[in-house]
């Protein structure tokens, strides 16, 4: 039997144990990322100013050699190879701008992608912290504080379903207990896909029952006033269930409710008379 891992090896093993990759949590370094972009931006702005100064010098100078180099790339390359100072300075500046712009644009794209990554759930972070810090921090140095700021963390795994139904299921879902480093059974793991599947089944069954129940109610009650009351009740229940059981936005809730309302016109017994 292999001895238990220590340090970074132990943390890596614990992170990799989660089948849903919810524990792939790392620092975002938003402050450093913003500062890095600001520095790259400042460098390019400085290079841009230098290029404008060279262009102004060419415009104000009557030397046709400089003007020819400004108009024709081959002439510029030839002058640079011959050691002409202005051509060498211009070529060096252009290359530096190209490299800086490439780095800046790549950093912008990467930061945009990172900004779209979701933050980890409090449930996962709390479990990670408990394992990480009990009975003492598994890592030393600055690394032992990397889970302290939840707002500065990013989750690499797929975002778990955050609907109220899923959250309720997670609270009571039977989980496989595993001992933390202090020997206590405080951390439980479960398959997030199963939770999402059960939540989906509950949502579908609820929607189906509301539709079928409304149809039976319309056929059962012959009084028109009572039918209107039943329609109002079912529409209200549907809208409330859609709001509480899904993550639908307001516009999506209105659209779903409107679609549900349209079914009453289709199944209204009065239409068949």
Automatic annotation (TrEMBL):
The keyword Membrane applies. The keyword Transmembrane helix applies. Residues 10-261 form the DUF6594 domain. The chain crosses the membrane at residues 195-219, 225-245. InterPro entries: DUF6594. Coiled coil: none annotated. Pfam families: DUF6594. Keywords: Membrane, Transmembrane, Transmembrane helix. This is DUF6594 domain-containing protein.
């Amino acid at each position: 039997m292999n001895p238990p891992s220590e340090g970074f090896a132990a943390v890596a093993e614990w992170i990799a144990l989660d089948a849903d990759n919810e524990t792939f949590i790392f620092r975002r370094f938003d402050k450093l990322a913003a500062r890095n972009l600001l520095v790259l931006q400042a460098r390019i702005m400085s290079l841009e100013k230098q290029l404008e100064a060279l262009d102004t010098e060419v415009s104000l100078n009557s030397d046709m050699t400089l003007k020819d180099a400004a108009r024709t790339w081959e002439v510029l390359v030839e002058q640079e190879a011959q050691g002409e100072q202005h051509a060498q300075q211009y070529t060096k500046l252009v290359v530096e701008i190209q490299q800086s712009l490439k780095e800046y644009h790549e950093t912008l794209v990467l930061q945009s992608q990172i900004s779209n990554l979701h933050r980890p759930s409090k449930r996962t972070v709390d479990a990670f912290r408990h394992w990480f810090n009990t009975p003492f921090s598994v890592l030393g140095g600055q690394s032992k504080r990397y889970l302290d700021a939840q707002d500065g963390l990013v989750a690499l795994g797929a975002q778990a379903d955050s609907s109220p139904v899923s959250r309720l299921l997670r609270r009571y879902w039977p989980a496989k207990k595993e001992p933390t480093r202090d020997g206590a059974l405080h951390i439980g793991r479960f398959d997030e896909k199963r939770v999402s599947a059960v939540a989906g089944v509950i949502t579908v069954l609820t929607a189906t029952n509301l539709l079928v129940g409304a149809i039976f109610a319309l056929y059962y009650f012959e009084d028109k006033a009572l039918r209107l009351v039943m329609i109002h009740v079912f529409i209200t229940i549907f809208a409330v269930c859609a709001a509480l059981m899904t993550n639908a936005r307001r516009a999506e809730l209105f659209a779903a409710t409107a679609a549900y309302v349209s079914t009453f016109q289709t199944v209204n017994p009065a239409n068949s008379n």
